[in-house]
Each structure stands twice: as structure tokens, then as C-alpha cells.
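Fill in residues.
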């Protein structure tokens, strides 16, 4: 499964994806790699009148048919997406959830905002209709642990269940935490990643005031353009990305197909700003170097990076400069957010799954809206169409508000 330091490399045996690029892993992969694919950016009535009134939206997903009405009534949309992705990941791994040792299975899911839309809705109910009309389900539907709890309930998991909240690095930190649980011996299997769905007028209005989101209302489909000289902010997306990780010996014992390995994890804090990365990039550099050391991988061995790449001016410049400083000229870099949107706490889960698929297929997805590369960013960004390549090691980087940085090192399955 690739070289590692002797510490446990987690086997990625299952993937589950629900994104604006496609419903399901195969559909999402086709969406981010097909030359003719177009981003599913939609204007939302909930956001009408705002300078950013659009977001990446999952089309063609019948949650009621998949989950049933009683379950829907107890889950905000981010939890619904998590359960759907978890089911696909477990099926993809070929694990029988009715027969596994449920106490040896962990669930670790990251989210930045949890059930914020339902919270918004109930705030309006309280203001307009009074306290007696507020739903008693507010807490179980909006708290950040709701997605992990819903997955455990749906799959009968009784091992460690954790919710991770490190802003936009939450999904990546969740996977790193799952790796640590596997290494500690606390579990044999972990379902890990992120989920988010925040079509919230309040949140987007605040992001507009912060000037963090794109206001390119004349052409929303090309508004998210990571590493482009003309980028002006990110575009929010909804989605979930969950991976089934197993101890290598556990995966081998049951003859599992292994898509990739998670060999290293690093995390750090900038201690600089609540909303901006440290200009010197020291925080994300530290996380990346720790992950490489954890995996015992030389920087020169990294052939691909699925970058955080949000399409904001400062983040892209900081991250791109650090990637070149640490990894040099070799890696093919992409930001798949141009096809999925910035799914906030779900981004790391979705993008780690896509990194595993890139290793498996030996293809790097393009940064679809990149037209004129920012020449201040000295990295090889794949643009316009997917690029075949040969590489055994890839990296996923994430950065979050508050200075939360994380990096994962993935290796090709042997």
C-alpha cells in the first residue's frame, strides 16, 4: 500500500460522496473529471437580494425516498447527506453492517455549521409565532454531533462517535482523528469525513459583508475560480464525503479491496487571526511537514495535491506559495471546489475521497474555471481538462477560519 514509517497506514476501503458534481462516488468522479461537465451553481430564493444569491446545489437527490419521512423529520439536511454518504461508503467497502463488531467501529464526522438552516427557521418561528410553536427537535437537529449521531443510529455503530469542528478543515481533521483512533487500537473500522448544507441567508449575508464570497452574479457558474488572477471569493456548496478506513490487518483478513492508504496526518494552528491565514504560511507549512514526517514520505515523492484552493485572494496565494516551498515543482495541483463549491466543513472529506480516486485512476482532475493563472503562485495547477499522471503519493491540505490547518498524506494501493 505504499511506503510508510512503520506506523499504521489506514486502508481506504470505501467511499461515499454526495456533491453538486454528482450524487454518488462514480457520478462525482465523472463530474470533476469530465471535460464537458458544468458546475451545478443555482440561484436560491432564500438568498435573493444578497450580493451573492447563488450556491452549488445537489440536483436530483430524493432524500425522502432514500431515508424515509420519519428519519427526515429528525435530521437537518447536513445529517441526511452524511447518512446517505455513509451508506454508500459502507456498501462500497463490502462490509456487512448487520454482522460487524459494532463496538469496534468508530464514526468521526466534521462540520463547520451543523444544522444552521433549521436553527434559522426556528428563530423565525419564535419571532413570528411565539415560543409555543418552536420545535422540540431543535437540539438534536442542529448540534454539530447530529451527523455522527445519525450515522451511528442508521448503521448501528456502538464504537467511538465524535464530531469535529475546526471550520473549513473539519473534514480533514476528522479523517486524521480516525487514523489516530485506528492506530491507538480503539477500533478496527472508522467511518470518517465531513458533511455540510448551509443555505442560510444569515450566514451568506455575513460572508458578503466579510467580502469572502464571490459577487460575480453575472456569471455564477464561473464565479469560483481557484488560483485565477481574477478570483474574488468562494462560492458555498453543500455535500458530504465519507470514507471507510480500516486497520490494514483487518482489511487484509476479510479480503477487502483497497482504494488507497492514509499514511500521514498533520495539524497546526496559526495563532494569527480569526478570519485570515498567517501571511507567511507557517501554519499550513507546519501541518504539511508534520504529515509528511508522519508518513515517512520525502517531499519530492509527492506527485499530486488536492489543495484547499478556495478562490479567495489571500488563501490561494498563501497556500500556493507554501506548496511550492515545501514540495517544489513536481506535484500536479488542483482545486476541485470549482466543481463542488466550497462545502466548508465537508470539504476535507469530499476532497480526500477525490484524492484517493486520483491515486487509484492515476488522473488529476482539473480546476475547471481557471483561465488566467495568478503568476504570483508558482505551482503547476491542472486546468481545463483532467491530466493523466503517474504518482504513488498525494497530499490533501485544508485551512480553516481561526487558523486551523490540516494535511493528509495518501499513498497508492499496491
Amino acid at each position: 500500500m505504499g511506503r510508510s514509517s512503520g506506523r499504521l497506514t489506514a486502508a481506504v476501503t470505501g467511499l461515499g460522496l454526495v456533491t453538486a458534481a454528482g450524487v454518488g462516488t462514480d457520478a462525482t468522479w465523472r463530474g470533476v473529471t469530465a471535460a464537458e461537465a458544468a458546475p451545478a451553481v443555482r440561484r436560491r430564493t432564500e438568498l435573493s437580494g444578497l450580493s451573492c444569491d447563488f450556491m452549488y446545489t445537489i440536483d436530483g437527490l430524493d432524500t425522502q425516498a432514500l431515508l424515509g419521512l420519519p428519519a427526515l423529520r429528525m435530521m437537518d439536511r447536513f445529517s441526511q447527506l452524511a447518512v446517505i454518504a455513509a451508506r454508500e461508503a459502507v456498501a462500497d467497502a463490502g462490509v456487512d453492517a448487520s454482522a460487524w463488531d459494532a463496538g469496534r467501529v468508530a464514526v468521526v464526522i466534521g462540520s463547520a455549521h451543523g444544522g444552521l438552516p433549521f436553527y434559522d427557521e426556528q428563530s423565525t418561528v419564535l419571532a413570528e409565532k411565539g415560543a409555543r410553536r418552536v420545535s422540540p427537535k431543535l437540539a438534536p437537529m442542529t448540534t454539530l454531533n447530529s451527523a455522527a449521531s445519525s450515522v451511528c443510529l442508521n448503521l448501528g455503530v456502538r464504537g467511538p462517535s465524535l464530531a469535529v469542528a475546526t471550520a473549513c478543515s473539519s473534514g480533514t481533521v476528522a479523517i486524521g482523528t480516525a487514523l489516530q483512533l485506528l492506530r491507538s487500537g480503539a477500533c478496527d473500522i472508522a467511518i470518517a469525513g465531513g458533511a455540510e448544507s448551509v443555505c442560510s441567508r444569515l450566514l451568506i449575508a455575513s460572508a458578503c459583508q466579510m467580502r469572502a464570497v464571490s459577487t460575480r452574479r453575472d456569471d455564477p457558474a464561473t464565479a469560483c475560480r481557484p488560483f485565477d488572477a481574477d478570483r474574488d471569493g468562494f462560492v458555498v456548496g453543500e455535500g458530504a464525503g465519507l470514507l471507510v478506513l480500516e486497520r490494514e490487518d483487518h482489511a487484509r483478513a476479510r479480503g477487502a479491496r483497497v482504494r488507497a492508504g492514509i499514511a500521514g496526518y498533520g495539524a497546526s494552528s496559526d495563532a494569527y487571526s480569526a478570519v485570515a491565514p498567517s501571511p507567511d504560511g507557517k501554519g499550513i507549512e507546519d501541518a504539511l511537514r508534520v504529515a509528511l514526517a508522519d508518513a515517512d514520505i520525502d517531499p519530492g515523492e509527492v506527485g499530486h495535491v488536492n489543495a484547499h484552493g478556495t478562490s479567495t485572494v489571500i488563501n490561494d496565494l498563501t497556500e500556493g506559495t507554501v506548496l511550492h516551498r515545501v514540495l517544489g515543482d513536481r506535484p500536479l495541483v488542483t482545486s476541485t471546489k470549482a466543481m463542488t463549491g466550497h462545502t466548508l466543513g465537508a470539504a476535507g472529506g469530499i476532497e480526500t475521497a477525490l484524492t484517493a480516486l486520483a491515486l487509484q485512476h492515476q488522473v488529476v482532475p482539473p480546476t475547471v474555471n481557471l483561465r488566467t493563472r495568478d503568476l504570483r503562485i508558482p505551482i503547476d495547477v491542472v486546468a481545463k481538462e483532467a491530466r493523466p499522471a503517474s504518482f504513488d503519493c498525494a497530499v490533501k491540505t485544508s485551512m480553516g477560519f481561526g487558523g486551523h490547518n490540516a494535511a493528509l498524506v495518501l499513498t497508492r494501493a499496491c
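Residues 77-93 form the longest helix (17 residues).
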